[in-house]
Amino acid sequence: MQAMVAGFGLGLSLIVAIGAQNAFVLRQGLRREHVLAVVLVCALSDGVLVAAGVAGFGALTQALPGLERVMRYGGAAFLLIYGGRSFRAAWRGGAVLEAGIGAGSLRRAVLSCLALTWLNPHVYLDTVVLLGSVSAQYEDRFGFALGAVTASFVFFFSLGYGARVLAPLFRRPVSWRVLDVGVGAVMWSIAAGLVLG
């Protein structure tokens, strides 16, 4: 039980910051479009990555130190680009949340979610490398992984479906601008941490 609680706490702390994936889930939740599919893709993807880390990929990155560096700098580049896109969206403005206006088809939403999840090296650093290496400290590695995966499900379902409470706020264009600036700032600060850390 101790390993599961530790896995839950660490897993939740790693995914709680608004990042590319979380911003997408928030937007889908605010638009009330394809929320179940999006949160399931995110949570199940996290589950696969956590399982890979706990099963030993964390040890692989320790055995190949160059791999960690490539993942770190690749993640920083990805986050800088995505953050720049968020700042550009804030500069342009004009976005509002209206009933009936959405992000597109289910296929497009799922593909976007998969890209933001699987093409973001920062996700690998959090789930595979960090959670994988920390899990080695626990005798019950399965319990640790189960806790981390449970945190992903709790967080993504809360974010996707809890976003509906914020819908009235995001009917104003200034709210989208604030969100985009916040996302850009978080992305750039995480990128700086990856490069400097």
Q: What is the element layout, followed by pairings?
A:
Elements: H1 2-15, H2 20-31, H3 35-63, H4 65-92, H5 106-118, H6 121-135, H7 141-162, H8 173-196
Keywords:
single chain; 197 residues; mainly alpha; 80% helix; globular
Describe the structure concisely.
With about 200 residues, the protein is mainly α. The chain is about 80% helix and about 0% strand.
Written account of the structure:
The protein has 197 residues and is mostly helical. It has one domain. The chain has helices at 2-15, 20-31, 35-63, 65-92, 106-118, 121-135, 141-162, 173-196. The chain starts with a helix and ends with a helix. The model is unreliable at 97-102 (pLDDT under 50).
Measured as a percent range, the helix fraction is over 70%
Class by alpha and beta content: mainly alpha
The share of residues in extended strands comes to: under 5%
N-to-C CA distance: 32 Å
What best-fitting shape do the alpha-carbon axes yield?
globular
Per DSSP, the total helix count is: 8
Radius of gyration: 17 Å
Order of helices and strands: HHHHHHHH
Number of strands: 0
Low-confidence stretches: 97-102
Our count of domains comes out at: 1
- Mean model confidence by pLDDT: 79
Described by strand count, sense and barrel closure, the largest sheet is: none
